[in-house]
Amino acid sequence: MAFARVVEFSGVNKERIEQTRDQIGEGGRPDEIPATEIMLLWNEEAETSLAILFFDSEEDYRKGDAALNAMPAGDTPGGRTSVRRYDVVVRMTA
């Protein structure tokens, strides 16, 4: 079973979300974050975002979680309001 790390951020304005998108797009996924997929959602009106990272194993999740928890606050899209782990029970793409 795969795992997802879902992080909610507040105070995410357009400038910050664009910086984050460019940073991820240019740098790619760091080796210390073995996510199979990274998804960043943004609600402009509420100035909130969700970062969803998928991992194939519990070991990969733990490694990625540790690396992400060690990130400086300035490297995130906004103020982190919650971090949750989920089991991925259904995943489908078109």
Helical run tally: 2
Number of strands: 4
Q: Distance between termini?
A: 20 Å
Helix content: 25-40%
The strand order across the widest sheet is 2-3-1-4
Run of helices and strands: EHEEHE
Counting copies of identical and different chains, the oligomeric state is: single chain
Derived from helix and strand composition plus strand pairing, the structural class reads alpha+beta
Give a written overview of the molecule.
The chain is α+β, with helices and mostly antiparallel strands and 94 residues long. Helix content is 28%, strand content 36%. It contains two helices and four strands. The chain has a four-stranded antiparallel beta sheet with strand order 2-3-1-4. The longest helix is centred in the N-terminal third of the chain and has 14 residues, at 14-27. The two termini are 20 Å apart. The model has no long low-confidence stretch (mean pLDDT 92).
Short key terms for the protein model shown above:
94 residues; four-stranded antiparallel β-sheet; 28% helix; 36% strand
Blueprint (SSEs and pairs):
Blueprint: E1 2-10, H1 14-27, E2 37-43, E3 48-55, H2 58-69, E4 79-88
Antiparallel strand pairs: 1-3, 1-4, 2-3
Short recap of the structure:
This protein has helices at 14-27, 58-69; strands at residues 2-10, 37-43, 48-55, 79-88. It is an alpha+beta fold and 94 residues long.
